[in-house]
Amino acid sequence: MTEEYPEVHDPALLAQARQILDACSSAKEMQEAVLAAVARNEQWRGRECINLLAPEAPTSPTVRALLSAEVGIRAAEGHIGAMNRWFAGTRHIDEIEALCIELLKKAFRARYADHRLVAGMIGNMAVYSALTEPGDLIMSVAQPFGGHSSNRSDGPAGVRGLKVVDVPFDPVELEVDLDLFRKVAPLVRPKLVALGLSMTLFPFPIRAMSEIIAEWGGRIFFDGAHQLGLIAAGLFQDPLREGAAVMTGSAGKTFAGPQSGIMVWDDPALTRPLAHAVFPVLVATHQVNRVAALAVSAAEMLAFGQAFMTQIVENARALGAALDRRGIPMLGAHKGYTATQQVVARVRAFGGGLEVARMLERANIITNKNLVPEDRPEDWDRPGGLRLGTIEVTRLGMRQREMEQIADWIARVVVEGEAPETVRDEVIEFRRSFQTLYYCFDTGLPPPED
Ligand SMILES: *Cc1c(COP(=O)(O)O)cnc(C)c1O
């Protein structure tokens, strides 16, 4: 098939969609094609899969319902308060947004919070836009150690015109190499050092690093995309208290709210630049239905965060140990595998991350390929790792016993070469008894283990 113009998307899938639409006899049929695809996903991913994607979290029934609330069609841009808004009629929207901000402050024990970021990525752009100038030097962790494009030259940091130098990282301990950082940082004198990774297994020496860079006025920016829920619950570490100037993150990863972004900070001097970078620079109408949903997820975090996040980490450790015992080498095994919701397997010997993730998908077990420290950045499409996360299985009420069961299925496919389709039938059967989402006001805590 020839393309008239280049597409970044898989041309075969776009051609298939065109075919479906061309075969429709009315626009209503076209709508039905969309609804049918949504329903297929809900049945498969929602009811029949074991979803182990580390950045994915199922929202509570109330949060999900709020995403279709009436307020979602209302336009509100700018800061809270009638005098700050362009549009009239925002009286109750102001209430919702103010509640959201104050709930976020409580959840993160922070003096300031922003609720308007439509993605964690936008939060990172806001930080770079507010706290750096083009040409500035920053430091961040490279992708094979877990770094995210938003803090590297191929993402917002690069678009801002920043020069990015690597934070030295210990590939065995899976932590910042503090001794080396002590030597390198004074030569670079970075304005910002971005910490917090996509593959985050262990905490960062925020305090020590912030003291080192304070000498030339450098600041720590903590990108807590994955760890926001853990941080809110007081597990993992508390970046603002340990010296980070600002923290961003995704609301839809461990925080288990609507997919979007959060930004919190304590220093009043940062309020104007950071808020200005959000509006009018990066966000106008900021989806008030999502803001309401975010506010409720913050309330859920206050009530259930401790129990939910503790179980998430226990499940991740149990899954790591169970996979390790079944012959799948795990990163950080000598340190208890993880202090977060993630564990990472080395699967180069089993065909590589892409192939293993595809095999497991045929077994209805959803994971993602991931770079591991021995990969080169250009291996990004065929890396040697597999990342697994425990947010969704935990919210469905699963505990250590179920992690053993899941590890069994993974090992049967990956290590023993069993046909994924036989495992899939067992997975579908198993999922039948795990359909309720817990750790929220709708359903409370999961029932105790029998
Ligand atoms: C996921 C992730 C992001 C991007 O967050 P979105 O909410 O998906 O835009 C940024 N930084 C890190 C470290 C991440 O893991």
Q: What is the percentage of strand-forming residues?
A: 5-15%
- Overall average pLDDT: 96
Which strand order spans the largest sheet, edge to edge or round the barrel? 2-10-9-8-7-3-4
Bound molecules: pyridoxal-5'-phosphate
Q: List the domain count as a whole number.
A: 2
CATH superfamily of the largest domain: Type I PLP-dependent aspartate aminotransferase-like (Major domain)
The string of secondary-structure elements, in order, is HHEHHEHEHEEEHEHEHEEHHEHEEEHHH
Distance between the termini: 57 Å
Helix content: 40-55%
Radius of gyration over all CA atoms, rounded: 22 Å
Shape: globular
Q: Which structural class should the secondary elements be placed in?
A: alpha/beta
Largest sheet: 7 strands, mixed
- By CATH, the architecture of the largest domain is named 3-Layer(aba) Sandwich
Parts with pLDDT < 50 across at least 5 consecutive residues:
none
**Top CATH class of the largest domain:** Alpha Beta
Number of helices: 15
Secondary structure: number of strands: 14
